[in-house]
Amino acid sequence: MATSIDGRIVVDGWPAPAAAAVRAEYERVHASYDSQGWMCGRITMEPFAKGVRSESDVARQYDGVAPRHDYVAPGEFESFAFALDARGRLAWESNDISGDHVVAVLSERVSEEYLAFLREKDVSYLLAGATDVDLAVALEKIRAVFGVRTLMLEGGGRINGAMLEAGLVDEVSLIVAPVADGEVGTAALFDVDAGADGSAPTRRASQLVLRSVEQRPAGLLWLRYDVVMKL
User: Which one-letter DSSP state was computed for residue 218?
Assistant: First the structure.
């Protein structure tokens, strides 16, 4: 991930030189991990999907009881883009993002109509969880079905927070830009959802151990932390 010094992750509105430097360094750091896939939440993936289903379409859910199977599109794929999309909101125009094969990670409640749409687009999908995505199950399937051993989690803040809270993050790799954002309400590196009644959720802080720090071009810092325990 990349953030301002106050932890915001949306670069829109940052000074143009800083935003450009962050994007370039982000890609260099990403490539250095030699991962087989990357994963984002639905909101982050919307610009890549280039389409969103209507609320009425999303509201049509699977009402059967028979188990349904994961789908792997035909073809040979070396790298993957995993989209966490519990309700099936994304209307994909393509099954490819810059050479990475798109895989939708869904809950069991998505309609058969939506699964048929994904198959027509040759978008692979995994079913993980009854009404929301079970993150641990999703990661098990990502490894078992697609052979991914190193997976980059790249936001937004809610999915980052959920994965960290679930104990599913091994390392935090963070580029810090010399920018003070200050925008109230902007997504942060790790966010937690409010309760159903709008109350603040119960959370547990996570202990990190600094592995390394490097100064990069344009005043950027690259920090690497190991995640070791919950507090």
Answer: G
Note the pLDDT tens digit of each residue in 159-196. 999 999 899 999 999 999 999 999 888 889 998 765 44
Residue with tokens 């859910």: 61
Whether residue 156 has a cis bond before it, omega within 30° of 0 = yes
- Model confidence, pTM: 0.92
Q: Which residues pair with 172 in a beta bridge?
A: 225
Please identify which residue in the block is written with the tokens 């919307």: 46
Phi, psi for 186 (deg, rounded to 5): -70, 145
Can you give the three-state secondary structure of 46-80, one letter per residue? HHHHCCECCHHHHHCECCCCCCCCCECCCCCCCCE
SS3 label, residue 199? coil
Query: What's the half-sphere exposure (Cβ side, CA atoms, 13 Å) at 169?
Result: 28
140: CB partners within 8 A, 6+ apart: none
Per the CB < 8 A criterion, the answer to whether 123 and 96 are in contact is no
Element (H, E) at 224: strand 220-230
CA dihedral of residues 19, 100, 132, 192 (deg, nearest 10): -20
Tell me the one-letter amino acid at 185: G
32's CB contacts (< 8 A; 6+ apart) are: none
